[in-house]
Amino acid sequence: MSTANIHRTGALEQVEAPGSMLTKTAAKALAVLRYATGFVFLWAFADKLLGLGYSTPSAKAWINGGNPTKGFLANVDAGPLQGFFHTIAGTWYANWGFMLGLLGIGLALTTGIGMRIAAASGTLLMAFMWLAEFPLAQHTAKGTPTGSTNPLTDYHVIYAIVMIVLAAAYAGQTWGLGKHWAKLPLVQRNRWLI
User: Which end of the chain is more exposed for a tag (fewer CB within 10 A), N or C?
Assistant: First the structure.
């Protein structure tokens, strides 16, 4: 059956050449994925900031003097960069960079504004976290198993790919402010802000 026949019979919702269109259903699905991914980042920010008792107890909340990066980075025990991560664990710049990154990426994804910046910075954050956990290692520096289930494609890689796909598909325009954002003169002159 040719593409023309598929169009006439309505066998598929819409059929076009790859890259030339996104169905309404796909756009809505990407919007749901955008919101869900944004919420992952916003929840991590809120939990670290306020100590909601999930991964961060109240006593270790950032607003209570806790340290958002120390626990994770100080306990890195695999990979060639563990010394680097131990050195930056708990520093003001690691804490502020991490927290602002979580907040900015989460807000960009949930609002649909600045999706390209969110994809780039989110991919960078995920790359650093991947390096810190270093799933390629089967054993820690002490020789115990790391428990890595997949040495290459773990959740950090998946989140990075998701953010890149969301930005590439202009997912911020469905159920988000991306369409309005893209019309601003500043964004028109600087397309990287989309």
Answer: N
Reading the chain (194 residues) residue by residue, the pLDDT tens digits are 444 444 444 444 444 455 667 889 999 999 999 999 999 999 999 999 999 999 999 999 999 999 999 999 999 999 999 999 999 999 999 999 999 999 999 999 999 999 999 999 999 999 999 999 999 999 998 999 988 889 889 999 999 999 999 999 999 999 999 999 999 999 999 999 99
| Token reading at 87 | 């050195």
- Contact yes or no for 101/121 (Cβ under 8 A): yes
In 3-state terms the chain splits into helix, strand, coil percentages (rounded to 5) of 60, 0, 35
Q: Do 79 and 131 touch, CB atoms closer than 8 A?
A: yes
Cβ-based neighbour number of residue 127 at 10 Å: 13
- What is the pTM for the complete model shown? 0.87
CB under 8 Å to 12, separation ≥6 — which residues? 6
Dist. CA 159–CA 157, nearest whole Å = 6
